Each structure stands twice: as C-alpha cells, then as structure tokens.
C-alpha cells in the first residue's frame, strides 16, 4: 500500500463503518491471530465489526481473545450473507483469492463493499481496492503490525492484540524457525512482548495441549510414513478410518507433515489426509531450501501456498492419490536433487 492509499484508508476509517473481517477456510493460528488482532484495533474506533469464518477452527486456538465472537459461515450463513451485503469494508486476511474462503466465495464475489487485502501468499487476485500483499512476510500477523505502524496506531496495541499477533507469527514461522523469520520479524515479536504478549503462556496454550488420542494418531501417521530416497521425499497417509479410530478432532493433524520433513536428507514431504465428508483427500506439502511446493501444489494438487509450505486436495482414492504422487515425482527429480541443505 502506498502513502496515498494509506491516507485514503485512514479517511475511510475516520468515521464508524460496517466492517467484516474474513480469514481463509480452515483458519490456522495466523488467520485467527490476524483477524482477532485487527478486530481488537477496529472496535476501538467505534466501527461495527464482525468476524466471519468460512468454517470452524481448531480447539487449540479457541482460548484466544474474541475467538468466541466468530460467526461460522457453515452454521450461520443467512446472518453472514447479510453482514457481507451491508458491509462498507471487507478485510480479507491471510488469503488473496475468494476461492480460499471456501463456501463464502460466492457471497464475496457478490459483495459490493470496498475490499482490503492483507496477505503474504503468492499470486494475489485483483479484487482489493486496498492491497497489502507481500510474499516476503513471515505471516499476516506480522503484516497487521506493520499495517498498524503505517496507520500510526501502534499505541493502540492492547495485550490481547499483541497476544493474537504473536500467536500467528509463532505458528506461521514454525516457532521462529523458517527462512521467513527476518530480523524485522523478531523486532516485531519483541515489541509484541513489550505490549503484553507472554511467550511462555502462548507456547503452552498452542503446543502443550496434546490429547492421548492425538498422540496415538501421530503414532499411526508415523507408522504409515514412506520414504522415497531416490526423490529425497517422504510422505504420510491417514485414512478416514484411522482418523475415526483415534477420535480425530479438527487440528489434530497439524504439524504431522513436519515429522516427515525432519528426516535427514529429505527435502520434500507430503501428507494425505482423507476427508470423507467432502469426498476429498486434503494434502499438505512442505520443503527445505528452494524446492517450491507452491508451484507443485498449483501444478498438481489444485492448491497453492508458499515456497516451503503449501496445501491442496485430490479427488482420487487414497491409493490413486499416492500413485499420482509417485508418477509426478520423476518430473521434479532434478529440482529435488539440486536442493542444497
Ligand atoms: P497447511 O498445509 O498448513 O494447511 O497450509 C500451508 C499453506 O498452504 C498455508 O499458507 C495455506 O494457506 C496454504 N494452503 C493450504 N491449503 C491450500 C489450498 O487448498 N489452496 C491454496 N491455494 N492454498 C492452500
Ligand atoms: Mn499465514
């Protein structure tokens, strides 16, 4: 966003507006963190703000301030559609294409509001009047901090907002581990700690909330791990039955794919998780170095994301899906071998 856009947006926000904030489908820590942090900011200026999520999000994020105020589009479509139709402004956070909002896609296309996009994924669609898109950013939560800075409003950061932003930075950087963690990211995190984010508390609430069922499911996932040394690749499958047998709850498989990627010498990892309710297999892709899983997800799995973390889906059976992976790997063999780690 340039200076002029910032000034215009400031002007728009200088009187109370009807605002809807939307994360992507299957919201993660960065999505819930950025939406609730922005909510905490906007309500201070007397705006009428609603947060509408395309679907539910995991229990391990439900301790977050304002997370109980989300309207779930799957459960309250009528109310959400009215809010979207009447909104002056719609903020799309942590996604850059309407289809990433799942069932809300049509309602977003039909909305006549002014759109504001704040996002760090590649290849943004062109729907927003105000577009703050930066693929070099660690997280949308870091961008919310920079956005508040541009608005000259960092003094409005409450401990709840600081906690929300810290949470999204923490989860999207793999605990400050990924390449996207810059010195600026760390400085932003430090400011958030100064403003009331408690790192130990947040880490405990996000990462130390395992259930025995989730641990058992992880055991199943690890026993299903397949290593394809020739392609420096490892993959994991989880069938609907395996999920059901271990009392699967939303969010339980978060991070499983990283175990495959943590193998020495492996540069590409993929997990396939059956979702019988949608007749699809949801997949997550992760890589080390410069192997581009965003490209792979776009080319083969009807998805996208970032260079080192992407997602997508398959409408084939699990067996056919795995065969598809095996059949496409030779195309990437040279790229996989070229990765320097
Ligand atoms: P995850 O594998 O953790 O669900 O997602 C990793 C990254 O890929 C996230 O940035 C997420 O937004 C993106 N992503 C996940 N699933 C999809 C998908 O189906 N389509 C697209 N375009 N991006 C996805
Ligand atoms: Mn993100």
Q: What percentage of residues falls in helices of 4 or more residues?
A: 40-55%
CATH architecture of the largest domain: Alpha-Beta Complex
- The poorly predicted ranges are none
- By CATH reckoning, the class of the largest domain would read Alpha Beta
Beta-strand segment tally: 12
The span between the termini is 35 Å
Q: Main β-sheet, in a few words?
A: 6 strands, parallel
Secondary-structure-derived class: alpha/beta
Secondary structure layout plus pairing:
Elements (H helix, E strand, L loop, with lengths): L2 H10 L5 E5 L6 H14 L5 E6 L17 E2 L4 H10 L2 E5 L11 H6 L3 E6 L10 E4 L6 H11 L8 H14 L10 H12 L4 H9 L4 H12 L2 E3 L4 E6 L1 H6 L10 H6 L6 E8 L4 E8 L5 H8 L3 E2 L3 E6 L3 H21 L3
Parallel strand pairs: 1-2, 1-4, 2-3, 4-5, 5-6, 8-9
Antiparallel strand pairs: 7-8, 9-10, 10-12, 11-12
Bound molecules: guanosine-5'-monophosphate and manganese (II) ion.
Question: How would you summarize what this structure contains?
Answer:
This protein is α/β, with parallel strands linked by helices and 341 residues long. It is 41% helix and 18% strand. It contains 13 helices and twelve strands.
Protein described:
This is Phosphoesterase RecJ-like protein. InterPro entries: DDH_dom (IPR001667), DHH_sf (IPR038763), DHHA1_dom (IPR003156), Oligoribo/pAp-PDE_c-di-AMP_PDE (IPR051319). Residues 18-169 form the DDH domain. By secondary structure, the chain is an alpha/beta fold. The chain folds into 2 domains: 3-207, inorganic pyrophosphatase (n-terminal core) (Alpha-Beta Complex); 212-338, Roll (Diaminopimelate Epimerase, Chain A, domain 1), CATH 3.10.310. It contains 13 helices and 12 strands. The strands form 2 sheets. The protein has a 6-stranded parallel beta sheet with strand order 3-2-1-4-5-6, with helices on both faces. Strand 1, helix 2 (29-42) and strand 2 form a beta-alpha-beta unit. It is globular. The structure holds guanosine-5'-monophosphate and manganese (II) ion (MN).
